[in-house]
């Protein structure tokens, strides 16, 4: 064989060999890049695990089990999208658990029902070793070190306080650190984004004098004001009035999907001035305005808000258990890494994602506590809502009954009927005055 042929054969063998190497190298590259992207998310979320703004597991415990916690194992609850196993898999290190009572209970037994929801969250967060109930920014930081899932308690709807600042303060004592001023109904003092309940309609007074007192008292206590579910006018009035940063715990961008639960750009600018936070809601209806959605459509909300007011104003408020359909690939609380991967692909930096995952919320919580500390010389507010603003048949007016106005019945039976009622009123008055003195 001529030497040139040998040389050619040899070189072609060498060439083929290196081509083979190249193919191997190339597929290895692809494999590593796919592998490292998921790895990068895992690594990032291990260092900066998520603080999520909104989850309605407590509502599901009410619906499915009437709050009988002993009937289920929270490590594995197949009927819902949230359990300890999946929270761990999703790198959820802290969860704001909503204590939500439907608007139908307004002016009825809403305070009892709210207490029962607080009870069930407190129970689940103390009876399971994986959870830890936290009530301060420092405890939240510590819980990460303890490898716990921190539980924060958040009231969803100002109707829960029955227009009473003492009730608000007692909820704070039970560990509540955030409250949405409305749910889907107006309260006597703030306005909802929804009009499905035709109650407490007012013209051009979206945050009353008492409503401002609620915001002031929340600032004084160090309770985070949540504007998800309020009307835009109420949100604006609160942003004008609050001394501390506020949050939208589970709302998305109105420009991307024009649902009234989402936040318009002009309000996002006000939120930025307030140093507050919008925690993007993943509910398909608020993402795509349709019954279904994709991770890419969720990323559109993040991109838009970042462009408008910066990554330092954004968080995540999944709304699992409170909504019925979630984007493909984000069906339960274990899926948050897929969202973070989607944002990495949209060129979000690790620092921006660390902000979104937890640093922004920590900043807001710490600033809310700082404002509380600045206001510590203030006494508990004694502002009371005017009676005419809360008149309803279930509100007992604490004064001695006027016997002359009672229906005329035989004197003896009338006295027998009403004396105990008078006693109850006296006892309640004493109880209330005691509470105020020990406050
Ligand atoms: C969770 O419970 C279901 C039945 O309710 C069971 O089939 C499944 O294996 C359990 N998973 C784990 C991780 O324990
Ligand atoms: C909030 O303040 C702005 C000006 O700073 C004012 O134009 C607006 O009317 C106020 N809105 C409410 C609802 O208080
Ligand atoms: C929302 O947008 C859709 C189409 O993008 C439009 O048909 C609808 O009228 C809009 N709704 C409101 C309230 O602006
Ligand atoms: Zn909600």
> Shape, please?
globular
CATH superfamily: Metal-dependent hydrolases
Tally of alpha and pi helices? 14
The helix/strand class is alpha/beta
Question: Ends: how far apart?
Answer: 105 Å
List the ions, cofactors and other small molecules found in this model. Answer: 2-acetamido-2-deoxy-beta-D-glucopyranose, zinc ion
Number of strands: 9
State which percent range the strand residues make up. Answer: 5-15%
The averaged pLDDT comes out at: 89
Please mark out the parts with pLDDT under 50 across 5 or more consecutive residues, or reply none: 1-10, 409-439
CATH architecture: Alpha-Beta Barrel
Radius of gyration: 27 Å
User: Roughly what percent helix?
Assistant: 40-55%
The count of domains is: 1
At the fold tier of CATH, the topology name is TIM Barrel
Tag the structure with descriptive keywords:
alpha/beta, TIM Barrel, 3-stranded parallel beta sheet, 14 helices, 9 strands, 48% helix, 10% strand, disordered N terminus, binds 2-acetamido-2-deoxy-beta-D-glucopyranose, metal ion binding, disulfide bond, metallodipeptidase activity
